[in-house]
């Protein structure tokens, strides 16, 4: 499988394959045309509560990842994760996010679970 993570603010590349927005909110300052998002499965994004908790600096990335994985076990999220996994089996998938540090974000957790 080929899954990578990129910031939505970077220009799309032909190697991106299917571009999946993994943020609950649409990124500021990016038009839908410029983002070239193919899928936006909001049901597999972190809950508002978890997102706010992590961004408030109340916990470590490891604890965030553990809590997020628990959320991904819920039926709707698990079904969406399986769908993105099937896309990755068929070709390249790029998880796009507005996170300033994608390597310590929910996108990194998803990439690890999809590989």
Notes on the protein architecture:
The mean pLDDT is 95. The longest helix is centred in the C-terminal third of the chain and has 16 residues, at 75-90. The chain is globular and about 40 Å long. The protein has helices spanning 32-35, 48-55, 61-72, 75-90, 106-114, and strands spanning 2-7, 18-21, 92-97. By secondary structure, it is of the alpha/beta class. Strands 1-3-2 form a three-stranded parallel beta sheet, covered by helices on one side.
Give the gist of this structure.
With 115 residues, this protein is of the alpha/beta class. It has 5 helices and 3 strands.
Descriptors:
115 residues, alpha/beta, 3 strands, globular
Write the layout of secondary structure elements.
Layout: E1 2-7, E2 18-21, H1 32-35, H2 48-55, H3 61-72, H4 75-90, E3 92-97, H5 106-114
Parallel strand pairs: 1-3, 2-3
């Amino acid at each position: 499988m080929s899954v990578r993570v990129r910031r939505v603010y970077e220009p799309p590349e032909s190697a991106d394959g299917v571009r999946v927005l993994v943020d609950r909110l649409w990124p500021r300052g990016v038009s839908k045309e410029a983002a070239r998002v193919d899928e936006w499965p909001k049901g597999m994004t972190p809950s508002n509560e978890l997102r706010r908790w992590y961004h408030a600096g109340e916990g470590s990335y490891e604890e965030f990842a553990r809590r997020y994985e628990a959320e991904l076990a819920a039926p709707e999220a698990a079904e969406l994760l399986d769908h993105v996994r099937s896309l990755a089996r068929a070709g390249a998938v790029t998880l796009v996010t507005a996170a300033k540090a994608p390597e310590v974000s929910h996108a990194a957790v998803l990439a690890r679970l999809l590989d």
